[in-house]
Amino acid sequence: MDESWRDGLPSVFHPLMKICLPMVIKIQSEELQNINLWALENSSAPPGSLQNLKSNEVRRQGAAFLCFPENSAGVLANLRDKASDVRAARANTVQYFRSEQGWCITSVIGLYGETLEVPCDSGNPPPEGLIITKWKYMKNVGSSGNLLIKHSSKEEVTVLAEDEYAGRVAIAPNGSLLISRASMQDQRVFSCMMATTQDLLEYPVTVTVYKKPSSVEMTDTAKVLDKGKLTLLGTCVAKDSNPPAEVTWEKNGQLLVPDGKAVVVTSSVKMEPVEGLSNTYSTLHYTATKEDVGAAFTCSATHPLAAQTSAPQIFPVHYPTEKLNIQLLSKGPIVEGDNVTLKCHADGSPPPSRFLFHLKFDSLSSPSFSHHSIQGRKVLVEDSDAYTLADVTRDADGDYGCSLADDEKMEASLRIGVSYLDLSLSPTGTLLKKVGETVVVKMEKNASGDAQVLWTKDGKAIKAPAFGPLKYTDAGFYTCEVTTGGLRRSQSFQLVVEGTPVITSLIKQRAADDKHKVLICEALGVPEPSFQWSVNTTHRVGDTSTLSDPNTPSTDEETSYVNGRATHSIHVVPVANLTVTCSVSNELGGDMRTIDVFSLFKEEIQPKGAGEDDQDQATLIVAIVAGLLIAAAVAGLVYWLYMKNSRQGTWKTNEKEEGTSEESKKLEENNLNV
Fold this sequence. Notes:
By secondary structure, this protein is mainly beta. It has 6 helices and 46 strands.
């Protein structure tokens, strides 16, 4: 017999042991890290013969060895419990070889609830001269039970099983045993027996059934975690698996490592008596910190077939208040009349529900706050963390605080500043004054901060008014506006300046069509004056027979009155040279002025504007002549006084001064000229 298979066997095997042909495992998954090499001990084997082959050694030698002495009794029945845990990616991925040296048992992994295929002779082609293939299994009591038999010459299969395998077993074309609806009861040794014309062969196969956990969930979870206190957080259960799952705990996805103090994990495995599946229980005791607020706890089950994680759970963490903070909920600066809300924030969990608000006014008996029903300097607020001061005034300016109702030493405070603004203006309302009178304007302000003052007159910005003797131009609507810290105050007065109307201008001009003349009369006066026109001192209201050509009567008349200035204009066509008078009056008095207007018909023979220009020149000549005459008279008077003074001695003695007749004659002529 060729025994070259023995080459390369580890030297750790005792020479007295009967070594069978190795079962060569073709590894289908790189997840396999270690394959245990077991040497089953008997009376003649050395003690402590358990050895491990690392994965690289398995690859080098191409085999893992499962060996036991030929004369070991009861080995087959206990092999499943003694053999190593061979982890494959899926069932039926292991091929085997047989040996003529003693018993060699192969192993198959099946999936729970699916069809299990158990190979005969590791799935090798049937030997020559095969007559019968028979499958049987090892019962728990050490006896065997028949499953089925098939003759090579026949297609039909005879099922021999009468127990739980009846209706569940069949044979594949290659001789493998097919078991439907695999369960934990199928974890046993099945034997394939082949009868040939020359020999009787038997190939035992150990079947293991894997099942991943049906669920992974946390139970008996804590309602709350107390800071610094070791608390039962919960129990994680991985149900119905085989082999039993390994359970670990995570916080925010990070593995929790048991340390026996803050993290204590206790695990146990219980097998269901009916199905034979295992439940893994893992209990976590945990000591929480403030940082665990909002942390998500999970537990995970690790199994050869799958990794599963429970739904995350977040636990409230309770811890006492360590710090208080008081906040002002009002936005922007506080001004008189605002509602001010104070909020007390505590960092404890759960937050306190009872607070004391400390109202630190300058005067406890301030009437401004009597309507708040404040008992002294403290206000107890329950089931709330806020307190509102309504319609505050400047008396509310001061320090405020809050504290725990059960521990007043834990307190927080802030200062509230209330902006205020007072404005007093004199005079106000409507002020009626006469031209030439005086007005004194007085403005006083009282503000919590720097105040800005703006004066306007009729909507336009001006400097602060300081009036002398009043003029018509001083009349208007005056406003004083003061602002500070979001507050705005304003007061105003209307100044009316009255007086007798005074004509400021009376002019004449040609109309654009050269067919009319326009007379414009302007006057200042309050109340509004009325206008009257007259010709040669004759009042002509509504009568244009003298002022205008009957064929072209005047129809245009315009009047305006703005800020005490009145204007009235008429369009006329004079038929003769006239003296026109404009008269204005109100209840306080009146004024008048005249102007000469020349006929348009006489001006038609002259160039445009010539008539009025000649008249102006004539007036100038008359003025010059009059000026010369006056100058001559003055010169004569000066000469007479001179002569009189030169004869002063004769006048003083009452003597008659005699002169020549020519001198007397010239003197008389000068006196006459004067």
